[in-house]
Amino acid sequence: MANLHNLFLEFKDELKITKTKKDNLMVSKDNLRKKIRDYFKKHHPNYIPKFYIQGSYKLKLLIRTKDDTCDLDDGVYFEDNPDNVSASTLQKWVKAAVEDTTDSAVEHRNKCITVDYKAGYNIDLPVLLFNSKSDAHPQLAVKNTGFQEDDPKEFVDKFNSVKSDQMRRLIRYLKSWCDHKRQDMPSGLAMTVLTMNNYVANTRDDIALKYLLIEIENVLTKNFSCVMPTTPKDDLFKNYSETKKKNFMDNLAKFIEDAKKAIDEKNKKKASLLWKTHLGKRFPEGADEDEVILGSAGLVSTIGTSKPYYKS
């Protein structure tokens, strides 16, 4: 049984964005905020924007994709809508504020305005209405639809109430798996929720990941859904086609099969190559040597006696 916990820790570091990119991201974020403030002060002075970083960056779950890119979600909040403009119009105003920031065209997506940078990152600007004195939750502007209740901060608080360092690492591994496979795999948010619901701690990341995958498969086989634990409490898998669902479940089954083989494999190199199949070339290769096997008492001590160990 090859113990690849340390290789997973190396992989975790490999997924981090560089300090240079992080610094550039923060400079760009501040620049966009200034442009938005200045635009609204000049063109719509009754609308005063405030900002809140949300998403993966806020949760400390940001990863560097295999294309060496990353993103930041910076919510643009307005306390009031004095002109009673539509959700699409409010988005368009934010879009106008950040036009020509880069050489790339600013995108008006369904739930955000997106600015792409040649430095290998993009900044998403969801637009929300929220009066903390009168509103229970923010209202997210959705293109050609209207305002829908959504509460990113509530999710941040929920995540922080259950998080652990290992849970964060496992979520990054799963996000990297989805990024490596692409093929219309689930979002990072979906993988975060699935991990929050099914994570069981272990002293080793490789074993913890194996049982997390097994638990996710067990749950989704019974009921293919991924319901947000916070507002708006929607099902992130609601609009999945049968093709998309099958693709994910097939990839999940293959990952579990190889994860089991990797845990049982004595040779560190062979075990690492099994993980590499699903996590990509950035996952480090182990030494071509066998793990020293402990006695049965040591084995139980290493694996633990959590419920998943006895059910699979």
Description:
The protein has 312 residues and is of the alpha+beta class. The chain has two domains: 5-14 and 163-311, no CATH class; 19-156, Beta Polymerase, domain 2, CATH 3.30.460. The protein is 50% helix and 12% strand. It has twelve helices and eight strands. Strands 1, 2, 3, 4, 5, 6, 7 and 8 form an eight-stranded mixed beta sheet that branches. Strand 3 and strand 4 (113-117) form a beta hairpin. It is elongated, with a radius of gyration of 22 Å.
Task: State the main characteristics.
alpha+beta, 312 residues, 50% helix, Beta Polymerase, domain 2, 8-stranded mixed beta sheet, 8 strands
Helix and strand layout, with pairings?
Elements: H1 5-14, H2 19-43, E1 49-54, H3 55-59, E2 70-78, H4 87-98, E3 107-108, E4 113-117, E5 121-125, E6 127-129, E7 139-142, E8 146-149, H5 152-162, H6 165-181, H7 188-198, H8 205-222, H9 242-264, H10 268-279, H11 296-303, H12 307-311
Parallel strand pairs: 2-5, 2-6
Antiparallel strand pairs: 1-2, 3-4, 4-5, 6-7, 7-8
Helix pairs in contact: 2-4, 6-7, 8-9, 9-10
Q: Which range does the strand content fall in?
A: 5-15%
Helix-strand makeup class: alpha+beta
| Gyration radius from CA atoms, angstroms | 22 Å
Instruction: State the separation between the terminal residues, measured CA to CA.
Output: 16 Å
Elements, N to C (H/E): HHEHEHEEEEEEHHHHHHHH
Number of helices: 12
Domain count: 2
Mean pLDDT: 94
The low-confidence runs, each spanning 5 or more residues with pLDDT under 50, are: 300-307
Main pleated-sheet profile: 8 strands, mixed
- Helical content band: 40-55%
Number of strands: 8
Q: So what's the overall shape? A: elongated
